[in-house]
Write a structure and sequence with these properties.
The structure holds 2 protein chains of 2 kinds. By secondary structure, chain A is an all-alpha fold. Chain A is built from 10 helices and no strands. In chain A, helix 1 runs antiparallel to helix 2, helix 3 crosses helix 5 and helix 4 crosses helix 5. By secondary structure, chain B is α+β, with helices and mostly antiparallel strands. Chain B has one domain: Oxidoreductase, molybdopterin-binding domain (Sulfite Oxidase, Chain A, domain 2). Chain B contains 9 helices and 12 strands. In chain B, strands 3, 4, 7, 8, 9, 11 and 12 form a 7-stranded mixed sheet that branches. A 5-stranded mixed sheet of chain B has the order 2-1-10-5-6. Classes of the chains: A mainly alpha, B alpha+beta. At the A-B interface, helix 1, helix 2, helix 3, helix 4 and helix 9 of A face helix 2 and strand 11 of B.
Chain lengths: 202, 333
């Protein structure tokens, strides 16, 4: 198969539209929740929107390298970073909604919930990992961390597993949506099974 | 007998946002084009990958006005109607909170048949009209506390369950009351598949001890916010037991059976370690996934309108305390 190559401005446009859409949707969700424009519970709406948004963006970021290698379309690869950054930002927005609107800055309860409730504990660890990856996603960190950078960023696979577990666990009983997500992420991890098993062999 | 004496636990209607005011505010936003654009972009654009392929909502279920004795005892802010009818746990229509409002609008409530049977002298069958006319209707503004640590204040309309039970004349051997939701997989997508219905073995069943059921606070509910119930809230008739977690307040009732043994209940069957038979609101007994010490009161449409408050024993309905004298409520949760 022939490698795919497109004009750089097209990739650039794609990247800018990821920036645009991610920001616009997140902004709109907060805007609606703040102005009371959603039906039902606005807090739950915001938690669902940001939480599921983070998972969607993470899934998109993970689907890029299998596609890029299948189609020999290397230009797509930098988009992983863009999507990954927004996945972390959505996760932070999710935690912020939990802290600010669900528990309204009652820090004692927030800390005890993170420690005592296993589904919140795993969610918090996933958030911590994604935030670390977000902070080290720039070129300066990459140059500074050298070979350790890739090792560090392999932790994305752990945060994927914890994120899905958090979702499965948070609901009162198993419904279709969390199961669909678990299935999608299982496929994404399966697509890179060689790389992941190699990580464990080292 | 009308229960009209004002108690500390009574709720008020003084600060209720008038529906027309509430709706006109929405109209203003609509005219500005915000609501339309908002539902396009926000809605659940990212909420569910399957939603991308779904279309518009079906026409809304038609509710009718009720005449009833207004609850004038006053103190706390009501939850706006749009919150109470669009945020529901009714797994028969799907496990997401927005599913019932989405998938229940074409639910048929007339004709309906509610049977009162079992250990009674006088078995009864109520049809749709009986539900609305057999007993004088009264408004009761109750707090609804969900086990998920959120709460609402809702103006229900109905009649005391005790009135209905008295007509059926329970036998002395009757000790418990078993309740059953309609089983109609054709109309209820959650009952068609265990997957959509959250693993609950349908029909949904609930139960009360007879003395709990006879407490005047236990309300057979046929309406809310001045109108008949919408399907997502349990039309045409549901139970409301305000001192217990919301899942005890079983919806769309077709059967009430007086029995001599403690009846099985749906959530207890599904996860016995998390849900007991009694399920009294109790800030001291934590659920494995939610601390029950405090709750978030949904009193407005914005995230900024939420109030964090302490959860009270029996949801603040102290008048039921005597039902549980000598019982270890940490054990019988």
């Amino acid at each position: 198969m022939k490698p795919i190559r497109i004009k750089p401005w097209k990739i650039q446009t794609l990247r800018l539209s990821i920036h645009g859409f991610s920001n616009l949707l997140l902004g709109f969700a907060y805007y609606q929740a703040l102005l009371g424009l959603v039906l039902g519970d606005p807090v739950q709406y915001l938690l669902d929107f940001t939480g599921i948004g983070a998972l969607n963006l993470l899934a998109l970021s993970l689907v890029i390298s299998p596609i890029a290698s299948k189609l020999k379309f290397a230009q797509l690869m930098p988009l992983r970073r863009t999507l990954g950054i927004y996945s972390a930002i959505y996760a932070i927005a999710h935690f912020y909604a939990f802290v600010a609107f669900e528990l309204q800055f009652e820090w004692l309860i927030i800390v005890s919930e993170i420690i005592e409730r296993p589904y919140i504990t795993v969610g918090f660890i996933a958030l911590f990992l994604l935030t670390t990856l977000l902070i080290t996603s720039n070129r300066i960190s990459k140059n500074w961390l050298k070979s350790r950078w890739q090792k560090l960023h392999n932790y994305v696979y752990i945060s994927v597993c914890l994120g899905v577990l958090h979702y499965l666990w948070a609901v009162k009983t198993i419904g279709p949506q969390p199961v669909i997500y678990a299935f999608i992420f299982a496929l994404l991890l399966f697509a890179r099974r060689k790389k992941i098993t190699n990580l464990f062999k080292k | 007998m009308l229960i009209k004496s004002t108690k500390r636990s009574d709720e008020s209607e003084n600060q209720v946002t008038d529906e027309t005011v509430f709706n006109s505010r929405r109209d203003v936003l609509k005219k500005l084009g915000f609501l339309g654009a908002g539902s396009l972009l926000g809605g659940s654009a990212l909420a569910n990958p399957l939603d991308w392929f779904k279309d518009e909502r079906p026409p809304k279920f038609v509710q009718s006005e009720l005449s009833f004795n207004v609850d004038t005892s006053t103190k706390q802010t009501l939850t706006p109607e749009s919150q109470a009818i669009n945020y529901n746990n009714f797994y028969e229509f799907g496990t997401s909170k927005s599913d019932p409002a989405k998938h229940a609008q074409s639910f048929k409530v007339n004709p309906w048949k509610l049977e009162v049977e079992g250990l009674v002298e006088n078995p009864l069958t109520l049809d749709y009209d009986d539900l609305l006319t057999k007993f004088p209707l009264e408004e009761r503004i109750y707090r609804l506390r969900c086990v998920e640590a959120w709460s609402m204040v809702i103006p229900w309309i109905g009649f005391s369950l005790s009135r209905l039970l008295k007509q059926a004349k329970p036998l002395s051997s009757a000790k418990y009351v078993a309740f059953e939701t309609v089983y109609d997989p054709k109309q209820m997508r959650g009952q068609r598949s265990r997957f959509l219905g959250g693993g609950v073995d349908y029909p949904y069943i609930e139960g009360l001890r007879l003395d709990e059921a006879m407490h005047p606070l236990a309300l057979m509910t046929v309406g809310m916010y001045g109108k008949t119930l919408p399907p997502q809230n349990g039309a045409p008739v549901r139970l409301t037991v305000p001192w217990k977690y919301g899942f005890k307040s079983i919806k769309s009732l077709v059967k009430i059976k007086l029995v001599d043994k403690m009846p099985p209940t749906s959530w207890n069957i599904l996860i016995p370690s998390e849900y007991g038979f009694y399920a009294n609101v109790n800030p001291k007994v934590a659920h494995p996934r939610w601390s029950q010490a405090r709750e978030r009161r949904i009193v407005g449409a914005s995230v900024l309108d939420q109030k964090r408050i302490d959860t009270k024993m029996f949801n603040g309905y102290e008048e039921v305390t005597s039902l549980y004298t000598g019982m270890d409520l940490a054990r019988y949760y």
